[in-house]
Backbone:
């Protein structure tokens, strides 16, 4: 039996999260990670009303929920800066109790418009990892374009270039097709990815829906990046074009890292010291070659997207983070305290 696909199991898990949250027992799990740092990974912070059950918005939180979450961090954790994290990692500098480092990936303008006021309200810093090739633009990255078409096109099927056909009659089927597209691209060269995307575009035309949700797909401009840096937000790199680094050729990967750093330093008027891998799964989305290129490009630390708390023995160029997206408050508490990771170690992960 597929335990994780079982409805009774899912219900039991939700009730367990509620019990841990309301009883305060979730905080006991944080004690197990007392010598580690929670690096929280966010993407977009938007007003309520974005589509539910859509992979394009899965890592999005509402402004109100983000306010509640940062207040939670302020009450039960000790938010730290990138500099504090760096001093601890390299020199063993002392950190406050239950440290948390907040990060954002992609660099959309909503980080400035909606997340920054909340961070300032609670006097909390963060790192903003920016896709430098999209500065000031309003458009979807290559994989977002594919997901958008798979979710919103009026077409009822998509056939990959290897002949596999995905039916698009229901939202669940469309979400499955998005997942299939990305898994497929992980096994293709960059040239083959472009060909796959071109084929998908031909099959899945868009209507007026294409212009919706602009704030989700608008990137920070140069002035906004500079203002973020002026407020104390660390500006980090997220490559030039958000590729799956492990699938691109050596020189292309090198340019993605070096040019992004240079472009962002011009915008922020500061040295860019940190990097976050697009997609971020070690061995799938980046590999040892890419870690070496990150070091070569002059970054001091790099972050992956794999769950777990960071400690002084974590790999310098593949530091773990815990993703925050659409979730209940009880699930959030269980996630950031380490209760979810602890339960996964007992029950196995999905």
Residues:
């Amino acid at each position: 039996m597929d335990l994780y696909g079982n409805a009774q199991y899912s219900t039991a898990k939700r009730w367990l999260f509620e019990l841990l949250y309301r009883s305060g027992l979730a905080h006991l799990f944080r004690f197990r990670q007392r010598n580690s740092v929670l690096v929280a990974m966010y993407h977009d912070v938007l007003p309520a009303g974005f589509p539910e059950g859509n992979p394009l918005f899965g890592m999005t939180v509402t402004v109100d929920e983000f306010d509640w979450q940062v207040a939670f961090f302020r009450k039960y954790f000790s938010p730290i800066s990138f500099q504090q994290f760096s001093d601890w990692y390299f020199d063993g500098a002392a950190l406050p109790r239950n440290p948390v480092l907040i990060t954002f990936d992609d660099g959309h303008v909503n980080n400035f418009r909606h997340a920054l006021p909340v961070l300032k309200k609670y006097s909390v810093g963060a790192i903003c990892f920016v896709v430098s090739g999209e500065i000031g633009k309003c458009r979807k990255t290559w994989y977002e374009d594919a997901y958008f078409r798979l979710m919103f096109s009026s077409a009822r099927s998509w056939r990959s270039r290897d002949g596999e056909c995905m039916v698009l009659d229901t939202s669940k089927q469309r979400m499955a097709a998005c997942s299939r597209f990305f898994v497929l691209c992980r096994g293709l060269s960059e040239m083959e990815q472009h060909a796959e995307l071109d084929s998908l575009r031909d099959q899945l035309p868009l209507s007026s829906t294409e212009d919706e949700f602009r704030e989700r797909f608008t990137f920070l401009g140069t002035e906004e990046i500079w203002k973020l840096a002026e407020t104390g937000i660390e500006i980090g790199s997220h490559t030039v074009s958000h590729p799956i680094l492990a699938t691109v050729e050596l020189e292309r990967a090198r340019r993605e890292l070096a040019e992004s750093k240079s472009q962002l330093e011009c915008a922020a008027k500061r040295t860019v010291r940190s990097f976050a891998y697009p997609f971020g799964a070690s061995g799938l989305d980046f590999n040892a070659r890419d870690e070496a290129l990150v070091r070569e490009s002059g970054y001091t630390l790099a972050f992956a997207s794999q769950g777990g708390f960071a400690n002084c023995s974590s790999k310098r160029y593949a530091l773990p983070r815990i993703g925050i997206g659409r979730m209940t408050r009880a699930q959030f508490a269980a996630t950031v305290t380490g209760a979810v990771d602890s339960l996964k170690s007992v029950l196995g992960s999905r």
